Amino acid sequence: MHESVLFRDLREALIRTAAGEGADRITRASVWIGALSHVNPPMLREEWPEIVAGTPAEGSELRIETSSDLDDPRAASIVLLTVTVLSDGESSGGSGPS
After folding, report:
1. Domains defined along the chain, listed by start
2. pTM given for the model
3. What tens digit of pLDDT does each residue of 47-57 get?
């Protein structure tokens, strides 16, 4: 299932981003869903708790942008755009992988 690979990759990106930011917790993640990814926002929202379970993003808020551009080179992907992290009890913004 293509979606499960995308979800696994998104989970790994969240873990890497938290580690790179020195974050104890991700409180919000913004993602972009490509037009050919076979993932729609309701599906991703439903799967989100399972995707982030056991990661620094567990319990985080999810924000979703969608694309209808079939010619975008990332059209078959889900892209982590930004994260908001908590580190040492402080809230700060961080950004996801490019």
Report:
1. 2-95 (3.30.2320.50)
2. 0.84
3. 999 999 999 99
